[in-house]
Amino acid sequence: INQQTQVKLSDGMPVPVNTLTFDGKPVALAGSYPKNTPDALEAHMKMLLEKECSCLVVLTSEDQMQAKQLPPYFRGSYTFGEVHTNSQKVSSANQGEAIDQYNMQLSCGEKRYTIPVLHVKNWPDHQPLPSTNQLEYLADIVKNSNQNGAPGRSSSDKHLPMIHCLGGVGRTGTMAAALVLKDNPHSNLEQVRADFRDSRNNRMLEDASQFVQLKAMQAQMLMTTAS
């Protein structure tokens, strides 16, 4: 984890999350799946609340969550230390029920915040999504939740989407790069990859098949804008 871009809570405690930037501008917060300990989950929730993340995007498939016994912290009601959560499912009618949407209410003392959650259930580790259209569709949803009350481009680590998969490099990097393309389809993806690696670690966007899908999404977008 790059300590230069590591996110810190208001009390100064660092969390295992980085701010991904491209061309000097913040794109998203990126991390690995929070550890299944009360402290780690409390810190994760505090970060979502304090940074007023525009949305939470969980790219870990249901199978992988079960296999690795990962906590389904974004659905249901929990108390993690000082933070209380209450998550309501909004819909799962998207893309053949591959995406569940929730609204998660967070409260900590006097602070309250509701964050939209997207859980993408059909994205295998180290592989692309089943279709390029789904990647673009996802980027659209994330971008739209950005505009609902949060600026799409913030100059700090606040009001950004928080994205994680399992390790926070492949699927997470791909999703964040898709957001960059939505902002500007002419963006240089090699430069996006290099900037993300500077922001987090050298493994960002390391899976070739995922990078190929980003290139396909870019080509599709440029064809649409040209026609």
TrEMBL record:
Pfam families: Y_phosphatase. The keyword Cell cycle does not apply. Gene3D superfamilies: Protein tyrosine phosphatase superfamily (3.90.190.10). Residues 1-177 form the Tyrosine-protein phosphatase domain. It comes from the Bacteria. PROSITE patterns: TYR_PHOSPHATASE_1, TYR_PHOSPHATASE_2, TYR_PHOSPHATASE_PTP. It is an enzyme of class 3 (hydrolase). SMART domains: PTPc_motif. GO terms for cellular component: extracellular region. SUPFAM superfamilies: (Phosphotyrosine protein) phosphatases II (SSF52799). Residues 136-211 form the Tyrosine specific protein phosphatases domain. Its main location: secreted. One of its GO terms (molecular function) is protein tyrosine phosphatase activity. Keywords: Hydrolase, Protein phosphatase, Secreted, Virulence. Its EC number is 3.1.3.48. It is found in: Secreted. PANTHER family: RECEPTOR-TYPE TYROSINE-PROTEIN PHOSPHATASE (PTHR19134), TYROSINE-PROTEIN PHOSPHATASE 10D-RELATED (PTHR19134:SF553). This is protein-tyrosine-phosphatase. The lineage of its organism: Bacteria, Pseudomonadati, Pseudomonadota, Gammaproteobacteria, Enterobacterales.
